[in-house]
Amino acid sequence: MPARARFWSIRLAALLTVAVAVHLAALWALPRLIMGRVMSAAAPASQASNQVVFPPPTDHLQRRVVMPSPDLLYALCAFDVSTQPMRIRAHPQSPNYWSIALYAANSDNFFVINDREASGRPVDIVLSGPSAYPGQMPMPAGAQVVQAPSAKGLLLMRVLVTDYTRERDTVEAARRSLQCEPLTGAS
Predict the structure, then answer these.
(1) 137 Cβ contact list (under 8 Å, min separation 6)
(2) If residue 174 lies in a helix (H) or strand (E), which one and from where to where?
(3) CA-wise closest residue to 75 among 169, 177, 165
(4) pTM for the model
(5) d(CA 64, CA 38)
(6) How far apart are alpha carbons 49 and 43 in whole angstroms?
(7) Residue 7 — φ and ψ, nearest 5°?
């Protein structure tokens, strides 16, 4: 192979290597950057993780949640289960659709429960992190244990609203039934 052809083939190989590396880095980093931004909005600096945020109803000016719908009320909880599990409880007694979804730090959805699956029963979940905890505490009777693939992530509750003015009391009570708190030995 002539020196000039070898020179260009080395350049082409280097260019392809850099392109593949940048592509793979973007695929890994972009979901984490997006979730970091969403979790920061859900748990402002003045508020700790594992606390529920109830944003006002969505309108055309708001983008608190990625692709928000004006037909849904949201409740958010940025979680951190790196040092202890979190207990999630809700009893959304709404005749409308509702769901609770859990997202890992890389934006993967790893758990969902909705009104049909709950069948009118209260939701009681113990969310544990990917690592074991020292001095493991007893789990509450009847709670569903869910293991998060990452220590940090986001809980997103959605409640369907058809007419907010007419349904306000019911749908607000449904979303405000959500509780996120560290699991303690006395839970």
Answers:
(1) 84, 85, 183, 184, 185
(2) helix 164-176
(3) 177
(4) 0.73
(5) 8
(6) 6
(7) -60, -45
